[in-house]
Design goal:
By secondary structure, the protein is α+β, with helices and mostly antiparallel strands. The protein has a domain of 114 residues: Nucleotidyltransferase, domain 5. The protein is built from 5 helices and 4 strands, in the order ααβββαβαα. The protein has a 4-stranded mixed beta sheet, with helices on both faces. Helix 2 packs antiparallel against helix 4.
Amino acid sequence: MGLTNFRKTAEQFGLALPKGELAFCEGCALRNAKKEPFLTPTRKYAPLERVNSDIAGRFVFSLDGDKYTFSYLEHSSRPAVTYFQPSKGFNTALDNFEVYRACFKRRYNRKILVHHFDHGGDDHCHLQQNGVVERLHYTIECWVCSILAGNQVPPFLWAEFWRT
């Protein structure tokens, strides 16, 4: 089973390919195994009109001792901000929200109008029906898992790859 992108790139640059089957890449297979979200109508939002947040984890302890990520996504320009935290506690999530709110209030000179979150519910429905932040987490987790599996990197480095 060869990798399509590898074949196309080799043909594009005139590189010689080895005869027979190309090696199977476990990391690439993990990255490509996903379902597409359901189509929804798009709408243009004003800055800070709508913010979504979600928590992801429980991962193995990172170098900094973190096990969870808490992400915010602002819908007008879609910048994603992720905070790493050692526990799923309310106080750390509230502290992260205060930092996020102050930073974006300074940037846009506006207040957050609507803040969506799932009250800590995990996988309450299919992945295609979940919000944009859960799809963002899924995408980043796939990237991180493919990097860790493809390069035989220790799992405690997950946060370092998530940050990049």
